Amino acid sequence: MRRFLLRLLLAVLLAPLVVLLAYRFLPVPGTPLMLIRLAEGESLRYDWVPLTAIAPSLPRLVVAAEDNLFCRHWGFDVDAFQRELEKALDGEESRGASTISMQVAKNLFLWPGRSFVRKGLEAWLTPYVELVLPKRRIIEIYLNIAEWGPGIYGAEAAARAHFKIPAARLSEGQAAQMAAVLPNPRRWSASAPTGYIQNRAALYRQRVGQLGDAYLGCLR
Fold it and tell me: With a cut of 70, which residues of the chain have pLDDT below it?
């Protein structure tokens, strides 16, 4: 029994590394969220493309919107976590402090939800993501598997669904609208933005200029 448990523990520890080593070079075939949505009766639009086939403005705008320190942190934004914790303790609404690396860990291996178990597993898997995958590959995976609407996954499918063009031809304004809906792509639409989404998109375009190469250099 002791030997069996040791082997089981070793398998649990090594399995994410093996999967991530494969994803360092191979396209991701699908995610748990895609399967869950399919089981719920939704369609699936998913087209993997390399980062070079995505307009360069989109990864920059997504980092500006979702994770300013993406190029600098090791998977966790400690300052953002502390700010959100203080909000929660004060009874204010919290957006969470998930980094892009944490979201990749969640999307690749886990289910949606806010339970402590899922968040704990996400925190455990995030260092694996940072250890195995270069930053440029992390953003490439994120842009390809992120949900951008009901049944729509990845930048290519989203660009075609919302703007009738490939992801490589996205304008900066269209890319900003796509970045702005990421917190809740099932509620907001990149192609039919509300005034709130338009304001957020303008803010992210401004933020990209403020961040510059010091914060966005790893995307090259």
Answer: 81, 83-96
